């Protein structure tokens, strides 16, 4: 089994992973957890640098008794022209799973096609399933449920937005996306969410999107690989900042999510990010616990 898309899991499997993540979080210091993945190894391939993805994968494997190898493309023959297929086949003879944080979604799909061990999408340009599991865990911690909640995404219709749309459709959540023209979510993702029974409103007005929302989520306006468009993007997204004025249109008990890193003063203000409605640090921590549950599910 691979985790290339959040759609590789059924709603029941998502709930089971979240249940297990809650258990692992509660018993973080339980030494018996170190036997869960004893003797297991994870190859973690990084085309893009990371803080949360790298640390969560390495600490998760260590906490569960396994071992993670950090592999940048400079450390692999991929950087000298070896095919993705050959890399997948060879790594499968050495390790028990492969995680890949890549630019092109096709790269992680090809790894999944040729590897003989589970492959985890640790971020691609299309989806970020590991992030959305942490987000769902955080939302469920705060509200005790997922179904029936409204999630408002404000900003770029990027990979995290795509996974949020799919997860919302799967888990019975209402979804509204506010994005400037030209930066809307992937059309195929929207169509897939609709086929799953999802309700996704794509709007130009961020006030309308957050109205009545329990969850308000955002991300950087300039992702890795978009740096050449920075000036253009900063201009296009100026109206899409998550600030206290915007948050007043959400429900009184709404929480704010940001997958980080944040560009304070751009997509989110200090007042909101450090304020009482922010669940961002819990969300970040939950990357660890949720990926532990994923690794256990795929490797045991």
UniProtKB/TrEMBL annotation:
Positions of the Aspartate/ornithine carbamoyltransferase Asp/Orn-binding domain: 148-296
Binding residues annotated for L-ornithine, in chain numbering: 159, 219, 223-224
Subcellular location(s) per record: Cytoplasm
Keyword Cytoplasm appears in the UniProt entry: yes
Source taxon at top rank: Archaea
UniProt-recorded Gene Ontology molecular function terms: amino acid binding; ornithine carbamoyltransferase activity
Sequence positions that bind carbamoyl phosphate: 50-53, 77, 101, 128-131, 259-260, 287
Catalytic activity: carbamoyl phosphate + L-ornithine = L-citrulline + phosphate + H(+)
GO process annotations (BP): citrulline biosynthetic process; L-arginine biosynthetic process via ornithine
GO cellular component terms attached to this protein's record: cytoplasm
Family classification: Belongs to the aspartate/ornithine carbamoyltransferase superfamily. OTCase family.
Protein name (Swiss-Prot/TrEMBL): Ornithine carbamoyltransferase
Protein's organism: Methanothrix harundinacea (strain 6Ac) (Methanosaeta harundinacea)
